[in-house]
Amino acid sequence: MSDQVLNQVLIAIIAVVVAPFIGGFLAGIDRKLTARLQGRYGPPILQPFYDFFKLLGKSKIATSRTQFIWLISYLVFMIACLVFLVLQQDLLLLVFLLGFAGISFVLAGFSTKSPYSHFGANRELLQILSYEPILLLFALAVYAENGSFMISSIMENSTPLLVSLWPVFIAVLVALTIKMRKSPFDISTSHHGHQELVKGIMTEISGPYYALVTLTEWYELVLVLGLIALFWSNPLWVGILIALAAFILELLIDNINARVTGGLMVRICWAAALVLCVLNILYIYFMRGVA
Amino acid sequence: MDIQWWMLAVAILLPVVAAVLVFLIRQYQLRGLIVILTAAVLIVNSIYFLKLELPVSFTPDNPIWGTIITVLDYAMLLFYIYVGLSLKNWLVLIFALTQIIPLAWWEFGLGASHALEEIKPAFLIDNLAVLMVLVISIIGSLICVYAIRYMYDHEEHKHLEKSRQSRFLFWLVLFLGAMNGLVLADNLMWLYFFWEVTTLCCFQLIAHDLTKEAINNGARALWMNSIGGTAMVAAMIYLYNANGGNIEYLSLSNIIASGGAEAFLLLPVALMCFTGMIKAAQMPFQNWLLGAMVAPTPVSALLHSSTMVKAGVYLVLRLAPAFNPVLGMIVAVCGAFTFFAASVLAISQTTGKRVLAYSTIANLGLIIACAGLRTELAIAAAMLLIIFHAISKGLLFMCAGTIEHQIWSREIEDMEGLAEKAPLTTFITITGMLSMFLPPFGMLLGKWMALEAVYAVPLAAILFVLASAATMVFWAKWLGRLLQVTPKLGKKIESLSLSYSVPLWSLFVGIFVFGFAVAPLYDRFIRGAVNNVVAVQHAFTEGWQIVLPDAATALSLEKGVELLGSYPVVALFIVFAVAIVLPLLFVKLKPQELKPVYLCGEQVGDVDTDEWYAEADNVSKLELGGYYFKGAASEESLNTWVYVVAISLLVIMFSIVLGVSL
């Protein structure tokens, strides 16, 4: 038993240490690829890391006394989600934890008295309203398929989830677009120049605090790609390839789409959640009833 | 006399005596002292209930109690008729008559009154009842203590010539006794009596301020709950007559023992369930609770947290074993629909207390849905939700009252930057709000369990999921209004009267203590209460566990049990501590690190200002409004649909029940 505990702790530590490197590297690929798609040369792959350390080296500046607490909370809850994932814990609880992370970021936006930051925070809330049902239904769909909410049960199942849950997979890809802040759903802030000038919810975040947010985004990217990899968990490398393919697909979607309005985003996502996820779950439910 | 007699007397009769005393005593300090003493005795007494060998039944030897209850029943109904006539409110009158006429016809016309005296036991003390007594006595008492000072400030602000605080406290304290009686009663006639007393107290408290709006809203609460009373009278008469004049099924325990097997019981069970849903302000009857917010805030705190609406969910939960699968499923869908609709409607509300009210309605819907699901996990979720909702919502309403007495407004927009004016109150309020919907707190544990249990009814599951998302939005929106501060303002911490701060801090501590110790809490007494509803197997050792799984997968391999879900309480609290508590305590900003926000240089002065140059260079205060989505989520645009769906669900429920029993 104690061996297993030690093992678990080790896995958790490795994940927490390695994830930002993967996330930062993927962010570098993102920038390079996006630049090429836009006919630019683009920065070196390691540019996100250079940026990160530059930000860390700056002196601390804040426009609010409480904002940094919510930013730390954003990071810590995101790391907790990742630990839950690698320790193969409860998927539904993981989604709730991710919810706390998201809400923390929104509250960070709200806790400064700045109009731009508030615009961003309100829009971030719309994003949560959009993707939260998809992720919760994803957890329910896993329960429908496996009879358990534990991620460990997904890993033990020899049939990939993708076979029976492909509509849910498509819906999760929609959620991934929001989570990666990519067009057409980069409502609250974006990586593109057209919003970077006054960067929505990020407006009042600078220096080391901005580095903190960047770090959290890397964790988030790894986490969400990890959730996608769950769709083909046996063998896991297929799942990882699928996740990477999904990542590249997001970059393409980002560059061929214009941003939609917040209301339209909510409608698209709820439609995706209701049509794809619900039909998928009902299908499994009734097939089980028939059998 | 038996120890049970004394404990019941303290729980039910002491508040009555205390209520009379506070009504007679017109001196502020002495009256306050009596309320505080009563609160202390009630709390201690409720804890002593845990020591009883449960379940225990009790019937007072003296038949006089039965007679008193019958007399008071008719007195109350006659009073309702009087209210209906004097306010010219025909709905109140009609639904008072629909209770009193059948009741009199049944008891005296058919001559049932003699048989009714034989119903035994009068009270049944089991784990579920004790759980409710604890919630009522502890949280309800704290709210009464809070009300002492609140009503003083309230009248000070209104410049009343003649103090009406005594009258207010009379109904408030009486309410606790009636609620205790309600959850302990087993005899349906007694249950009905206590039920009516809570309706009466509720009416009196809502109408307390005697404004036109207060009286109208009180009357609305009265007639809506009278519909429930009518349904209960109908259920009782049916139970008696359809069983050939036998009193067997006029006691709750016998109805429950039938386990849903007797087809003729289904209709009365559905009727009583309907009664409970009205009292729990389920759609389409949500308006009485929304209207109740005109009353002074302690009333809302009491109605929403430990009394009144909890009586409604208690009755549904109590009757859950007597549902048949179809009725259970419909109740689950009704509850889930209310959860969803109320959460969405809460997004567009601009008044703080109205958001709280919709959130209460939503959570009651969730609890009722859990009662309808009737699995062990769902029932356990319902009970945890009852406890944690009572703590958090009691706290939040008291915070709302305290805020109101600092800014004299209930509007969320007016709370902008509250942290500058009242940092302490804001801090407690924010914690209360976080505890309503985020991990690691108890409410989320309940919601998590509910979601893991709901798969059996997919329609309810979908509604749950959408409602959860909407819940996050309306809380975060309000939190956002409270949080924003101009960095250099707001350093002074306000002082609160003891009558405010003791109840506030008690519940604040309660959130953390009960949230953290939820596993022992569950083992010690919630499991027993769940057992009163469904047979407990070993849900939390097999399948679901809420203790720290230091290696959840390892555990499942070791014991050969497949783990279905896991909620590591301790780990979650550690994450919360690292994320929020430690930075709050140990990280401090230096003054030179604070800078003004990005406003293109348009601000007047430096960091310590919240003014800017607006149109035509006028100096204006910087104000940031919230989003309320009035177009998509407002009551005007949604209410029609809400009523259509909610009423159809009720019609479906009764058609099916009638189809089965006829």
Topology overview:
The complex is a heterodimer of chains A (291) and B (662).
Chain A: H1 2-37, H2 47-57, H3 67-86, H4 91-110, H5 115-146, H6 151-156, H7 161-179, H8 193-196, H9 207-229, H10 236-256, H11 262-290
Helix pairs in contact in A: 1-3, 1-9, 1-10, 2-9, 3-4, 3-9, 4-5, 5-7, 5-11, 7-9, 7-11, 9-10
Chain B: H1 3-24, H2 28-48, E1 56-58, H3 64-86, H4 90-109, H5 113-116, E2 123-125, H6 127-158, H7 165-184, H8 188-206, H9 212-241, H10 252-257, H11 266-279, H12 287-291, H13 297-305, H14 309-319, H15 325-347, H16 352-373, H17 376-407, H18 418-421, H19 423-437, H20 442-453, H21 458-483, H22 498-516, H23 518-531, E3 544-545, H24 552-559, E4 565-566, H25 569-586, E5 611-613, E6 619-621, H26 630-633, H27 635-661
Helix pairs in contact in B: 1-2, 1-7, 2-6, 3-4, 3-8, 4-9, 6-7, 6-13, 6-17, 6-22, 6-23, 7-8, 8-9, 9-11, 11-14, 11-27, 13-17, 14-16, 15-16, 15-21, 15-27, 16-17, 16-21, 17-19, 17-20, 17-22, 17-23, 19-21, 19-22
What's a concise summary of this model?
Chain A has eleven helices and no strands.
3D structure, described in words:
The complex is a heterodimer of chains A (291) and B (662). Chain A has one domain (2-290). Helix content of chain A is 76%, strand content 0%. Chain A has helices at 2-37, 47-57, 67-86, 91-110, 115-146, 151-156, 161-179, 193-196, 207-229, 236-256, 262-290. Chain B is mainly α. Chain B has one domain. Chain B is 69% helix and 2% strand. In chain B, helix 1 (3-24) runs antiparallel to helix 2 (28-48) and helix 19 packs antiparallel against helix 21 (458-483). The longest helix of chain B is centred in the N-terminal third of the chain and has 32 residues, at 127-158.
